[in-house]
Amino acid sequence: MKKNSVNKLFRSIGAVFAAGVLSLSVMTGSAVTADYEDDIAALERKQAALAEERRELEASLGEYESGAEEHEKYLELYDEKMRVQEEEIANIKEQISLLDEDIADLEEQIKGKEEEVAEGIVEFKARLRAMYMGGSDSIASMLAGSTDFYDILARTELMERMSRHDKEMIDDLNEKITLLNNDKAALEETKAQTESKKAEAEGVLAELQQTYADHEETKQWYEAQAEYSRNRTEEIKREEADAEEELQEFIRKQQEELERKREEERKRREEEERKRREEEQRRREEEERQRQLEEEQKRLEAEAQGVEYVPEPVTTAAVEEDTSDDTYQYVTGASQGFIWPCPTVLNMTDTYGYRTIAEEGGASDFHKGIDINKPNCKGEPIVAAASGTVIRASDTGNGYGIHVLIDHGDKISTLYGHMSSCTVSVGEEVSQGQTIGYIGSTGYAYGNHCHFEVRVNGETVDPLNYVSMG
Asked: Above 80 in pLDDT, residue 16?
């Protein structure tokens, strides 16, 4: 009973001590990790908001650029229409100018004929006045001056002819004036109609000019909106880069915290193993002491009875080696080597480094990883390149879409982006080759592929220094 009591006491003390160490370690690690999780969650919310705004801006940018191009075409169309209309107005003005010249010419002709009429009337009036002033004396003089009756008739006929000539001359001039006035009136009517056509054409031109101005104003608005979208998109990219840098700093701290917890766990397990061995040693020593006491008691009893005491042979129980996973075994990715993250997709497109993006009009950026894909690769499995702890497993809005970030120790981590779905959660320990998700095109992606990154102390490095398809 004493032996069992001692053993139980040592086991209880050891268990309580070990539990206390473990609880303290977990509580301390959880508190620090929770702080980082809050900071990381806040940054991820910021990234998600920036990503949403960026997606909206990129979508509206296309609309604004399309609108500007459409109104640019309208401007070209209406510019041609205005040119034709201005030519028509210039032609009408030329017609009006010619009509003005014809009317002016007719007015000169009418003026000349009116002057001729006026002169004829003046002469006719002068002769009538002379005849009137001469009265009968003039007639008497005409009779007295005549040689015979035929001479009288001749003189009378001459006077009548003169009078008739004057009248016919004036009538002819008046008729010509009437015709000229009619021609002038007709020209003025034509001019009035032409003036009306000119006013109508100028009205059409004014409408065209107003429409042109409206399209130009709308085009300028679209261009201003497009320029704002482009500038704001660049600002967001810088803000996203700053947020990503800050996020990586927190992830580095999170990795350091995981390393510290692993080291604490290793030390805790070593301490537990040391205490277990010490306890086992004490137990064996106590058992040996008890055995010796019992042997001594038996010897004394034998001597008292006068018999020879024969000690029982000592049998040492084989100490079974503990092969359970009590000791902390964390094999880092660096020490065990990395494997290709997409075992069924042995093809790579974009490599690490600067590249040109055809889908973005030839824009250039720095590609932080490699892209693994092949036709119809959606849904193909993605595996952990090395064992480690999952520290990201969601769509945080940072452009990677649904992605998984695994810490492998030694400040090394790997990222798997644009998944259609992931099968692991934050805090989960994964083994090398374990399926963690499936290929997709979530986030900023132009087709199904796996974006794979390797990071050392938060900084990306060329993944091909760690993995190969062979």
From this structure: no
